[in-house]
Amino acid sequence: MYVMTAAAYLYQGCAMGRHKKITLAICGLGGFARRRILPALISSPDIELVAVVDRAMTDFELPSNIRRFNSLEELLNSDLADSVYISTPNHLHSQQAQQCLQAGRHVLCEKPMATNSQDCQSMLFAAKKSALQLTIGHMLRYSPALQEAKKLLENGMIGVPRSIKAIFYYDLPESKRPWAFRKEHSGGGALMDAGIHCIDTIRFLINGPVNVLEARTDSVGVSGIDRIAQCRLTVGGVMCSLSVCSNAPYSSELLICGDEAEIAVSSFAACWDTVNVKYSSYENRGLNKEVMFDVSETYAYQLQAFADAIKSQDVNYRSAVDSLENVKIVERLYEINKPF
After folding, report:
1. Domains in the chain: boundaries
2. Nearest residue to 305 via CA among 18, 2, 20, 22
3. Closest CA to 181 of 148, 118, 227, 138
4. By the 8 A CB rule, do 164 and 256 touch?
């Protein structure tokens, strides 16, 4: 089974040459952070959770050595945390990321980077000005299943890529994330929420310029929130399509077709349990294979990459630049949208 290997570094300048962990605070202790980020931090060899910012001051139990803050300002005025994981509603990402960067903290911000490309640009400018790491949480790039699909593509196993189709269905009741149904807070509906994962996955697999062709959604009324979106675009000359829906049972599928073979990734958007990668040659069945990959450590791999970037003392902005482009693509799709 393919497992992405995280590089190991020793933190420069630590006393007696001992390994020093990067201290991290989580801003926004909602269900996502509790369900995905906290478990990933438990197994992290290089990151130590030292604080949370929890305005609601939930009764969720934390170890006694982890401090709770009522506001991000209180955290940033303390001497805790080298870095901050921002897991708040979308409209807060840009402002909070800039606050953290200006206060000398590295930032790992959940996707989407922000609700619009102008705010994304501001985040990137703040990161470069402070010379601090800014990573955006497109965690699927760290999925072992998608890493395998990318390796098959790069090794020419499907010949010339011809098309990619991504499907992502999930159920998001309004009661679960009320802010997601206000466009000024979310930036959009299913296309911004799940479609941006599909777009980033395709761009991770295929390099090249993006040409937006068609977008159709069910967004109606003043809210402008879409529950269904179907889009077509080309990436590096490859015809790509995505279909997302936020009021259906969970299902995600990825199909990559070439002139010699195809790759099917079942549940490609999952970060729990296992994901199946199936390679099918059109002519040589002896090459066919089907492998299950454990993707339960995907968020842990993302956190490790974040730590590695910080400790290398050579911060980079590839994640932020790519994430800015993702938001621009979503904006262009909304611009040409023709409602169903």
Report:
1. 15-137+302-317, 140-296
2. 22
3. 227
4. yes
Check: CB of residue 330 under 8 Å from CB of residue 113.
no
pLDDT in tens, the chain (340 residues): 333 322 222 223 333 334 689 999 999 998 899 999 999 998 789 999 999 998 776 677 888 889 999 999 999 999 999 999 999 999 999 999 999 999 999 999 999 999 999 999 999 999 999 999 999 999 999 999 999 999 999 999 999 999 999 999 999 998 889 999 999 999 999 999 999 999 999 999 999 999 999 999 998 655 679 999 999 999 999 999 999 999 999 999 999 999 999 999 999 999 999 999 999 999 999 999 999 999 999 999 999 999 999 998 788 999 999 999 999 999 999 999 998 8
Separation CA 252–CA 280 (nearest Å): 19
The CATH superfamily holding the domain 140-296 is Dihydrodipicolinate Reductase; domain 2 (3.30.360.10)
Task: Evaluate whether 25 touches 50 at the Cβ level (below 8 Å).
Answer: yes
Amino acid at 305: A
Give the CATH superfamily of 15-137+302-317.
NAD(P)-binding Rossmann-like Domain (3.40.50.720)
CA proximity to 73, closest of 53, 58, 90? 53
pTM, 2 dp: 0.92
In degrees, rounded to 5, the angle at the alpha carbon of residue 24 between the alpha carbons of residues 22 and 25 is 170
